[in-house]
Amino acid sequence: MSIMGTRVVRTEDPVFLTRGGTYTADLTLPGALHVTLVRSPVAHARIASIDVEEARSAPGVVDVVTGADVDLVPVKAGPVGNDAMKRPFLATDRVRFVGEPVAAVLTEQPYQGPDAAELVVVDYDPLPAVVDLRAAARDEVLLFEEAGTNTVAGFGLDEPFDEHLFDGCDAVVTADIVNQRLAASPLETRAAAAQVGDDGRLTLWCSTQNAQATRDEVAGWMGIDAAQLRVITPDVGGGFGAKIGADLEFALVGWLARRTRRPVRWSEGRSENMTGMLQGRGQLQTVTIGGTRDGRVLAYRLDVLADSGAYPRLGAVLPTLTRAMAPGVYDIPRVESRARVLATTTTSIGAYRGAGRPEATAAIERAMDLFATEIGMDPAEVRRRNVISPEKFPFTTKGGMNYDSGEYAKALDRVLDAAGYAELRAEQAARRDRGDAVQLGIGLAAFVEITGGDAFSEDASVEVHPDGSVTVLTGTSPHGQGHATAWAMLASEHLGIPIEMITVKHGDTDLVPRGAGTMGSRSLQTGGVAVDQAATELVELAKRRASEVLEAAVDDLSVSDGAVHVRGTDVSVTLARLAEAEQLRTEATFDSGAPTFPFGAHLAVVEVDVESGKAVVERIVTVDDAGPVLNPLLAEGQRHGGIAQGIAQALFEEVVFDDDGNPLTANFADYGIPSAAELPSFTLLDMATPTHLNPLGVKGIGEAGTIGATPAVQNAVVDAVAHLGVRHIDMPATPLRVWQAIQAARQSKESS
After folding, report:
1. How far apart are CA 619 and CA 604, in angstroms?
2. How far apart are CA 716 and CA 443, in angstroms?
3. Which of 113, 116, 143, 147 is nearest to 130 (CA)?
4. d(C-alpha 479, C-alpha 460), whole Å
5. For residue range 33-51, what is the model confidence (pLDDT) as tens digits?
6. Which residues neighbour 609 within 8 Å (Cβ) at sequence distance 6 or greater?
7. What is the pLDDT confidence band of residue 351, given thresholds at 50, 70 and 90?
8. Chain-centre distance for alpha carbon 178
9. Whole-model pTM?
C-alpha cells in the first residue's frame, strides 16, 4: 500500500509536546555575552550626541558600542530601491523609525542589559514624521535628503494610464481600498548567537527561514567570504515571511563576537519584535472596474501606493506580485496597473503570508462585489460569468502570468453548493424583512496565487546507512510545515523503509551548502520533488549494485521493504547490506523552471450586530486546490492556519502609528491577534487539479487560506449591511468601523 496521500501523523510532534523545541535562545554557549539594543523612542530625528560613559560603568557591562565604533558599511538590504536609502547597523546621524537601534550594550548576564541600556543618553533633535502614504508621496518630509524623494521604486509608472480603458462599459466603479499593515507576530521572536572558532571561522545561529541565503547576506554585509561563515538554524517558532533571509542584527551579533572574541547572543522581547521586525501588507489601492449590465467585466485598473517603511527591504518589490496577479481568476480583456513604493518613518515592510498576492486578491475581489452591486447582479453570478474557463489553460493573463491549470468555476460552485447558498440568501432576506438587529452577510472570494516565487530549484540527498536507517538532507527550512514527516514519506515510498527510520536534516550550511529555504509556498513542489527524485535515483543505484550481488538483470529487480528483490523469487539483498559494502547515497537538484498557480474559492458567513457593529464569522467554506495532496493532515493544518490569519486581517489585526510615528500596537494587548474563541470551525472541501510542471503534479498550499479568507470575510461584513446603504468598509472591520459606516449611510439617506 502506498503511503502517499495518507494521514501520517507528524513525526516532529512528540519532541515539541514533551521536551519542547530547541530554539536559538535555548542554545548553551558558555561564556556568552548578552546583547541589549538601545532603540530610538522617536520616529524621525537627528542624533546630536550619544553618551555611553555611565552605561560602561554599570554592573556586568563588558562593552557599549555605537555606530561610530562599527566598521560595517550601511547597506541597501532590499532587492530594489534608491541607492541613497541605505541602513546603518547602528544609527549614527539620524533615526528614521521608532525602534531603530542606536547602541548595543554587552553584559555578562541578560538581566543586566536593560538597566545598563537605560543609562545610554541620546540627544535627539526631532524632525517631522511622515506616516501617511499620500503625504510621503508629496516629498515634503524627506527621510533621505540625499535621495531627494521618498519614492523607493516605481513599477508601471513610465506609461500613463489609458484614458480609453473603460470605453464601451455600461457601468464603472472606483473605490479606494486600504490593505492595512500587519505584524507577523511569530511566537518565537528574532534571535541570534555567534561564536568565533579556533580557526577564525564564524558560526551564526539564528531564527530564519533560509540558512543559505542568510549566510550569503551576512557574509556580504560583514565583508567576509561566505566560506568563513557557518549558519545553523535551530528550531524556528514561526516565520510567516518576516524571517526570510537575514536581519541586520544578525550581522551585528557576528561582528560583536569577532570584536570581543567571545560568544555573543541576542534575543528580542515582544514589544521590540513588534517595532523592529519586518511587517507586512501596507498598501493603499485605488481600484476601477467596468463592464456591461449583463455582468461581463471588460476593464480593470489597479493603482497602488505601497509602504516600504523607513528602509527598503523585501517589501519594496512585492507590489510587482500584486500587479502580476491583479486580474485574479478572471478573463478580463483590458487590465492595467501601476505601483509606487514609498518610504515612511515606520518599521520596514517585508513579506507576510502571501506577500503581494493577498493584496491583489483583496483588490479584485472587492472590485467584483462593487461591480455586482452597481449592476444589481448576484456576486456569485458575476464571478461565474468572468472566470477563466478550463479549456483555455495554460492561460496567459493580462498581468503577464502563465497560469498552468485551473478549474475556477468548479471551485466556486463547490463552495456555493456546500454552503447552501440559496438557503443563506433566503435567510438573509428574511432577516432584512424583519429588521433584525443581527443581520447575515455572505461573502465570496475566488482566488489564484503564484507559488514557488523566483526559487524554482532545490537540492536534496538521500542516503541509506549500514544499520538500515536513512538520512535525507534538504535545502528547505521548515518552521512548522512538517517537512520531517513529508520528506520521510517520499523517501519511504520508494525505499520501503519505515518513516521512523528516516531522519530529515536541514538548516546547516556546512551540511547543506545549497538551498533556497522555505517561503512562497515552494517547499513540496521544489524540495519535496528533489527528495522524490533523489530517492528514485537511489533505487536505481541500489538495483545496479544489487544486480552484481544477486547475479540478476537490473530489469528483473525491484525495491520494497528496504531491500532489493529478484521478481518472482524470494532472493533479495537489503539496502543496509549494500550500504555496508559502499556508500549508498544520491543527490538531486530539481528545477521546475516556472511557478505553479494554486487556486480556490472561499465563502464566509458572518453575523453583524447593526446596533454595535460587531461582526462574528459563523462559517467559512473553502476549496484550496493545490494539486495532489501528499499528506492531508499537513495540508489541512496549512489551510487552517492560513484561514485563521486571513480572518484576522479582515476583522482584527492592524499595525497603527500615530501622526508622530509612534507605534500604538506594540504588544499583544493592543494588537488584535485572535484566539480559537474568535474563529469558527472550518469546512474544507477537497479538489486536486495537478500541474504539469513537476512529476508529483503538486502546487503550494501554505498561503492559500490567507489569500482567500480575507476578502471573503470582508465582503461578507459589507454584504451584511449593504441593504442599509453601506458600500465599503476598510479592514479590519472592527465594531467601531462597521458602526461608523452604518451611521454614515443612514445620515446620507436622511440628507438625500
Report:
1. 6
2. 4
3. 143
4. 18
5. 999 999 999 999 999 999 9
6. 437, 438, 615
7. very high
8. 19
9. 0.97
